[in-house]
Amino acid sequence: GPRLILVLGDQLTPDLAALRAARPGDVVVMAEVMAEGTYVPHHPQKIALILSAMRHFADDLRAGGWRVAYSRLDDAENSQSIVGELIRRAAEVGAREVIATAPGDWRLRAALGECPLPVTLLPDDRFLCSEAEFAAWAEGRKQLRMEFFYREMRRKTGLMMERDKPAGGQWNFDHDNRKPAKPDLFRPRPPRFAPDAVTEEVLALVEARFAAHFGALRPFGWGVTRGDALVALEHFARHALPTFGDEQDAMLAGDPTLSHALISPYLNLGLLSPMEICQRIEAEWQAGRVPINAAEGFIRQIIGWREFVRGIWALEGPDYMGRNALGHARALPAVYWGGKTRMACMGHAVGQTRDMAYAHHIQRLMVTGNFALLAGVDPAHVHEWYLSVYVDAFEWVEAPNTIGMSQFADGGVVGSKPYVSSGAYIDRMSDYCGGCHYRVKEKVGDRACPFNLLYWDFLLRHRERFAANPRMAQMYRTWDRMDEGHRSRVLAGAEAFLSRLDAGEAV
Ligand code: FAD
Ligand code: SF4
Prior knowledge:
Elements: E1 4-6, H1 17-20, E2 27-31, H2 34-38, H3 44-63, E3 67-71, H4 82-93, E4 98-101, H5 106-113, E5 119-122, H6 131-138, H7 146-157, E6 161-162, E7 165-166, H8 197-209, H9 226-247, H10 264-269, H11 274-286, H12 292-316, H13 344-356, H14 361-375, H15 379-389, H16 395-406, H17 423-429, H18 450-461, H19 463-466, H20 473-481, H21 484-502
Parallel strand pairs: 1-2, 1-4, 2-3, 4-5
Antiparallel strand pairs: 6-7
Helix pairs in contact: 3-8, 7-12, 9-11, 9-12, 11-12, 12-16, 13-14, 14-18, 15-16, 18-21
The chain binds flavin-adenine dinucleotide and iron/sulfur cluster.
């Protein structure tokens, strides 16, 4: 009899492992279900993107001759869970087994493990490094460091290599990157895609069903097909890549995207492959159109960071999402859900997240992430927020970035030290502070930048853990040299700020 071939919403790849394993007569199952739309309150644009991309992909499969059993969210018979839909379709077509590609989410892996039908889980080979390869690389290492993993991946892929040596004689050109940026009306804007009829139908559905979720549904400009994704990649490679390295860490109030690619959603849904992206970037460099720091820096994000965090997610297992090495317990402040704030940086980062379901890496890491970490927010809440609000958020990539890199809740698996800073970093890399109620140069008093207060509060709360870290010892020496009266004003200011935060006041 036929078998069921499960294709999940982030598995929209024609040569997906489960599709390659299909035999003639097998039935592809795709399902829009409430369980997936609501296990966290996903941003409406994220739900719309996934549903529309699924519908377009199902149409392509049908056009390619596949039998597709597609469940729409509003189908009356829809059981509203993935396993429920597998059971229903199995009865319908007389199937007795399921072929699936391993989901990037432990919750779904567990659900498939409990499915009454036998499920064969194939490894997801859309990643350049398999889970087994990563585990072998990690074996016996005291610390897992992205930089060393990245070199292996450069060798493995041959990207920007001259025989066995890195192009340009260095693995990493980051010392040429990370500059502040200036507003520029002529900076190319990422392409936007006008909704077609399929997307419009999805938008109406999302409006009706998920109106309570945080985030604006319209204007909706995400691409929803592989063709759109290729347009986005091409646009980035030709227009934004040359300045990607320089502007990578910069933040501007009037420019939420700067020279970023905005391709993570397409890559994570499977509409683009990591290797084709990197080869396209490499070609720009080979043609002499972009500097080496831009091309190398970008390729590092994809074959380095992205593959590295995925390896860690797989290696660490399902309990990773509950880690809380620093014992942080504060509830997520209302500002994350759009509550009023006088902090310009938080207002901009959260505001663009609400409007676009997008913020770039430094906004996620050094504004919203930094603030949550300094304030001691429960990392499980922080994880739920990032998983909800970003269009590119799937557990395998979001959790190691949030629990690990950003909140240090894994105790140092992803990063060797916490990403914390005072207001000075934000001031250097952005134009936010000029328009802020708080004064970034003030270290104490009512108008002192909250990052300046909380930074020291955080370091002192965790002195025992971090004082011995050679990369942090200097900060403790700086603190110890400060005047006693100044130190107590800083700590009292932090305490007062945190109690206003806990009282739900607009900070
Ligand atoms: P660009 O800046 O143009 O970068 C290029 C590409 O590199 C991205 O498309 C992405 O695929 C990859 N990349 C860069 N950094 C990382 C990284 N640290 N981990 C994995 N891939 C990376 N990325 C996600 O894809 N999904 C998430 O849910 C996610 N959550 C994050 C949460 C936090 C707290 C932090 C600090 C980072 C998170 N990231 C996540 C990583 C990064 O912020 C996004 O990949 C990036 O902002 C996507 O936008 P872009 O395509 O314009 O990226
Ligand atoms: Fe953010 Fe502080 Fe700058 Fe205000 S002064 S924008 S709170 S860093």
